[in-house]
Amino acid sequence: MDFDKQAKTIDQQRELLISRGLDISDTVRADNYLSHTNYYRLSAYFIPYQHESGSHQFLAGASLDRVLLDYEFDRSFRMLLMGALERIEVSMRTQWAYHMGLKFGSHGYTMWHKRVYKNENLLRRDLAKLHEQVRQSNEPFIKHLKGKYSDELPPCWAACEVMSFGLLSKMYSNLSAYSVRKQISAVYDLEHPFLEGAMGHLSYVRNVCAHHSRLWNKHLIKKMPLPRSNPLGFRDSLVINDLRHNGHKVYNTLVLIQHLLIKIHPESDWADQLIALLREYDMDVTAMGFPSDWQKRSIWAAYIDGIRTP
User: Fold this and answer.
1) Closest to 249 measured CA to CA, from 95, 77, 10, 71
2) Predicted TM-score (pTM) of this structure
3) pLDDT 10s per residue in the chain (310 long)?
4) Treating both helix axes as pointing N-terminal to C-terminal, what angle do 165-173 and 192-210 enclose, rounded to 10 degrees?
5) Angle made by CA atoms 98, 200, 110, in degrees to the nearest 5
């Protein structure tokens, strides 16, 4: 079947929403959002307030004001996560370069050996990607290294600065050097098999944020793995027993981020900011996979009501 829908003017888009039962109290505000935020983009935020029949009809009491609160929350939420993920990514790059450099030297990360990597073909793929990222870089230190030295790739402590989070995750995953894997994971008080999956998950979430995609009630395709150990109450704060409904939601990601920030930046007020944001927008956190008792779970309890324990 060929696509036969016609483009609609802003007036037609607004009237369509009203005809479907959405309360629009301020048409000027509505038109402004529709003019600068694609209707198709906003439609994802309509879904929680529509009947499940597929008719696109809104539930009684649904308002554009509430939809826009969700939209603006999601925007601020992604920005908050991006700040935290920047710290985490920089830290993990640093740990990878530090331990790989001490164990195998400046360029040992580029050499195939079964005591370093699990799979030679994966290493070749990853190094090809790194070559591309180095080639595209305009960083002065990359230009300096290229001009002064004959090595095709920079030393690990420079390479990590142009390496994407996704590539870093793959390089760590391919390590057979378990001493290095364990040294890196120990920095975060995590098991190395869990950190491998967690890095891949965080890279995926970072890309969702970086591409300005909806996150707050999203079904995350790349689900976060579960740890076996419980450092700092980490595992006890996760959703473990309701994975069918909430395992693909963002709540577990938030617990992981907070755990990592406690290790990386102990004076961080990220949890305070997250809780304040939830309150400011009066969010339904169940859509994000939060358990009903989340405020009592150890990783959050110290931040509720502004009371923080040492």
Assistant:
1) 77
2) 0.92
3) 888 889 999 999 999 999 999 999 999 999 999 999 999 999 999 999 999 878 899 999 999 999 999 999 999 999 999 999 999 999 999 999 999 999 999 999 999 999 999 999 999 999 999 999 999 888 888 888 887 887 789 999 999 999 999 999 999 999 999 999 999 999 999 999 999 999 999 999 999 999 999 999 999 999 899 999 888 889 999 998 776 666 789 999 999 999 999 999 999 999 999 999 999 999 989 999 999 999 999 999 888 754 433 3
4) 160
5) 40
Q: How close are the terminal C-alpha atoms of the chain, in Å?
A: 63
- Which residues fall within 8 angstroms of residue 42, CB to CB, at 6 or more apart? 33, 34, 67, 71
Token pair listed for 50: 């529509």
| Cα 177 from chain centre | 27
